[in-house]
């Protein structure tokens, strides 16, 4: 209601509003987004498959037709949408929020992925309260694409798009990060 009343918000707010209206109209819709791209859109279920509807692109078309004259064609169910997202830096990890409140990793529906297996190895310094954080960059800004509490000897399997990532395991303390390690990887270098 807040988004509709004040008519403000970014891509995430537009996606939430569009999804809510579609669901109330009887059309199954869910919000999808990629934190590495820092962008959200809507997936609509048509004939048992999810198709893309990006209300942000349509908003740009409506509000600046001079610079975005063809975006009315690519905002809904058009393969050129993928090319536009690739020009923005490419996909990292796409998560869809399902109607039941759960989340689904749908990265493989959007780009070629690499399956990354991360094994947390313990040491005498790492006991508990460890976090795994995976980041990538949008231009020069670091974006978190995965953050989860982990334990020693945990195995995490993820599908990641073709970007460069930084993996960190750290243990937070009251004054910041006590133990951490990070290294920047290109996804093609990871086994």
Characterise this structure.
- The protein is 21% helix and 41% strand.
- It contains five helices and eleven strands.
- It has helices at residues 2-6, 11-24, 55-63, 71-74, 80-87; strands at residues 29-34, 39-46, 49-53, 95-97, 103-105, 113-119, 130-138, 141-150, 155-161, 164-173, 176-186.
- The strands form three sheets. It has a five-stranded antiparallel sheet with strand order 3-2-1-4-5. A four-stranded antiparallel sheet has the order 8-7-10-11, with no helix packed on it.
- The protein is α+β, with helices and mostly antiparallel strands.
Strand order of the largest sheet: 3-2-1-4-5
What is the percentage of strand-forming residues?
35-45%
Globally, the shape reads globular
Order of helices and strands: HHEEEHHHEEEEEEEE
**What is the gyration radius calculated from CA atoms?**
19 Å
Specify the biggest β-sheet: 5 strands, antiparallel
Find the structural class using helix and strand composition: alpha+beta
Number of helices: 5
SS elements, strand count: 11
Termini gap: 46 Å
Query: Poorly predicted ranges (pLDDT <50, ≥5 residues)?
Result: 176-180
The average pLDDT is 85
What proportion of the residues is helical, as a percent range? 10-25%
């Amino acid at each position: 209601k807040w988004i509709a009343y004040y008519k403000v918000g970014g891509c995430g707010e537009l996606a939430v509003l569009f999804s809510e209206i579609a669901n109330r109209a009887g059309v199954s819709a869910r919000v999808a987004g990629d934190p590495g791209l820092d962008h959200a859109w809507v997936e609509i279920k048509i004939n048992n498959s999810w198709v893309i509807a990006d209300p942000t692109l349509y908003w740009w078309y409506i509000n600046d037709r001079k610079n975005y004259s063809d975006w009315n064609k690519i905002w809904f169910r058009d393969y050129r949408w993928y090319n536009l997202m690739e020009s923005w830096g490419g996909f990292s990890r796409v998560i869809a929020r399902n109607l039941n409140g759960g989340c689904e990793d749908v990265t493989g529906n959007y780009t070629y992925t690499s399956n990354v297996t991360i094994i947390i190895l313990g040491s005498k310094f790492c006991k508990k309260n460890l976090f795994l954080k995976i980041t990538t960059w949008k231009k020069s800004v670091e974006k978190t694409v995965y953050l989860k509490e982990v334990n020693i000897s945990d195995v995490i399997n993820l599908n990641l798009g073709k970007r460069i990532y930084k993996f960190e395991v750290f243990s937070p303390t009251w004054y910041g990060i006590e133990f951490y390690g990070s290294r920047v990887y290109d996804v093609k270098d990871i086994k």
